[in-house]
Design a protein that fits this description.
- There is one protein chain.
- By secondary structure, the chain is mainly α.
- Helices cover about 60% and strands about 10% of the residues.
- It contains seven helices and three strands.
- Strands 1-3-2 form a three-stranded antiparallel β-sheet.
- A hairpin with a 2-residue loop joins β2 and β3.
- The chain is globular and about 55 Å long.
């Protein structure tokens, strides 16, 4: 359906869908195109350099930035914006590689920590420079400082709107 003409031809009722304008449609499709290509670009770089997908790299980064390189699994799922089942599968693969280990939580028998191992830290040290170069080349080197600032501000507004606090929202890490 041509959503733009449906929005402007007067045939839609006021309570009906708010179709995207031509400009909004171009923006939406450019966003989807760019984010899909960016994720693929970063995934291929990390697969080539470290044999891991981008999501696993993100988990290792979350752990290296955490106190004592450890986070509760629920906190790690929240920071990574993924479901607990997807996190469990990813951590199992990272454990198999020797990059992460799980530890039981002494204060909660059901809780577990994910802990970055020295080997996992070494992988990050080796892979991070290439990953940062790939991010810089694919994103930041293509934008002016003003565009970078605008992109950051826009993404923050979008993320905050999709992650409301205290509303019982259906967020990945709560599933």
């Amino acid at each position: 359906m041509n959503t733009a003409s449906a929005a402007t031809d007067g045939s839609g009722d006021p309570g009906g869908p708010r179709w995207l304008s031509d400009e909004e449609q171009r923006t939406w499709r450019a966003f989807m195109h760019a984010t899909t290509l960016l994720e693929d670009h970063l995934d291929r770089q990390l697969q080539r350099d470290a044999g891991m997908p981008h999501i696993y790299y993100g988990l290792l980064v979350q752990l290296v930035e955490a106190p004592q390189r450890r986070l509760r699994m629920t906190e790690l799922a929240m920071r990574a914006k993924i479901t607990r089942s997807r996190l469990s599968h990813a951590v199992a693969r990272l454990e198999k590689n020797g990059w992460v280990r799980r530890e039981d939580c002494p204060s909660d028998k059901r809780g577990q920590f994910a802990v970055l191992t020295d080997e996992g830290y070494g992988v990050l040290e080796r892979v991070a420079p290439g990953h940062v170069a790939a991010v810089r080349q694919a994103l930041f080197d293509r934008l002016t400082p003003e565009q970078q600032k605008a992109l950051g501000e826009a993404m923050l507004v979008i993320a905050e709107g999709l992650q409301p606090e205290g509303t019982g929202a259906d967020l990945p890490w709560l599933r």
